[in-house]
Amino acid sequence: MVQAMTDQTIDVASDFSRFPGGRYKADGENSGQAFREDILVPALRRAIDTNSRVIVILDGTSGYPSSFLEEAFGGLIRVHKFDKETLDSVLVIEAKDPVYQPYKGLSRRYMQDAQASSSAH
Amino acid sequence: VAARRLAIRIRRRLLTSAPTNRASPSSQLITVEYEHDGKLRSVKAVPLAVPQDLSIESNYVEVAKWLSGLRLALAKGAAQFQERDQLQLPLERNQPSQRFYDFAQIKALTPATALLIAAEYDRWQTTLKSRLGVYNRRRWRKPVRRLLSDIGFFDLLGIQLARGGKKPSAGFVRMTRYESGDRVDPERVSNFIGQLLNLVLRVDERALDLRRSQTMKLVVALIEATENTRLHAYPPALRDDPKLVPKWWVAGAAYPSERRLTLVVYDQGVTIPGSLEDISENSRVIATWMKKVARRYSKMKGRSGEKIADHVAIRLAMNYGTSSSGRPHRGKGLPVLKDVVENCRDGRLLVLSRFGEYRYRKGKRPEARGLPEELPGTLIVWDLTF
After folding, report:
1. Tell me, what's the ipTM?
2. If you average pLDDT over every residue of chain B, what do you get?
3. Residue of B209, B220, B330 lying closest to A65 (CB–CB)
4. Residue contact A21–B184, C-beta within 8 A
5. Which candidate, B257, B229, B190, B217, places its Cα nearest to that of B382?
6. Splitting chain A (121 residues) into consecutive groups of 10 residues, what average pLDDT does each group show?
7. Contact B301/B311 with Cβ under 8 angstroms?
8. What share of chain B is helix, strand, coil (3-state, %, to 5)?
9. Separation in Å, CA of B194 to nearest CA in chain A
10. Strand positions, DSSP E, chain B
11. What is the CB neighbour count within 10 angstroms for residue B100?
12. Mutual angle of helices B209-228 and B186-200, in 10-degree steps
């Protein structure tokens, strides 16, 4: 039996970049694809294997363009075929500062949209 | 070699006698100063007319016509230059043209038009890999000279201005030097916005949630605008065009006494309507949906083969974030441009793209109309009061 481990925390501002933006790696250094592939997905795989959670903290950056959030979070379902239910139990998105609250909602919405879109196909 | 030289002379005559550039009433050769790469000399040339009011926002038709003439003139100059280069004839770098646009005629110039001019010169300098010159600079009106100086126009041309002339431009305190690029660069965009807002917001209010939220929305909107350029404005077929520089250009002006700033983004790509037209070829389902929605904004009858007007296409993109990729997860960015306006005390947004104009003012209904002159590319102008 796999034993539950300590949750992993990803602070976007300090673990990735204070200036996230761009959809694909070709668009720029701090793209949603880079965040998803290099940081988020490896952390999620570890969390699933160890029955723990990944907590993503959105605070402290210059803001989040929609394409970044869509590619980072929607891409989990669209590209990596994660199941929305699994993500609901493993992935926690946090925004303590009220200024970042809208981005938390958007991230969730993009995952829902991606799930709806993948179900439709 | 003699035949080649003759061919060049004929071509040069044809080009210099092209009827596209309207000469000033006198149409006579005059002696003017020609400044190129730090060198100044006297040459004889015919001045061409430039609109006195170079405000693309309020004098669109005249300015767009003039910009198209400027582009053509620079393109012809580039063609001549490259022809000489290809034929391996002596390159007459620094060779002044016999005709020149007389900027001394300009009485009013806005940041948006200044950016369009700078972008055009930047494009042709990049294409030519050589610097362009200016005529009669010392006779230009001071506010015009200062605005072009602030935006970085003279730096672009490698012309160094005398020190001590850096007083605030008339009508606004400071214009930021233009930035350009071909990738998404959130850090540069963020610093650029920070620099502008520091001129408008008091130190004690910058930490307030409202101000932080406004700053963030502005940064995000500008990133979205530059990203749209990268993703949609220059499709692969266009990127191969050697006369095109697939970049975005950004500039801003601050009016501290009014707590107002102007932010301008420009690209020379396929335009928003042009980008959306690709959908018709790629996806019949989306094309049908677009036409259905477009009928709400226009007098379209829904006949087959009927095209969506440019201003309707822009309105569609602004409302729905329609993406030229035709993929549902893409194209969510354009509505964000409007959010910035909503988030300020007062604000306006102007989008000019090909033959379409879209205007939005906080709390009002958006207005869109067709334009008689084409703007090659997409220009976005925010005018925001905090």
Report:
1. 0.89
2. 82
3. B220
4. yes
5. B217
6. 75 98 94 98 97 97 95 97 94 96 95 86 61
7. no
8. 45, 20, 35
9. 10
10. 30-36, 39-48, 53-54, 99-101, 108-109, 134-135, 174-175, 179-181, 248-255, 260-267, 346-361, 367-385
11. 22
12. 140
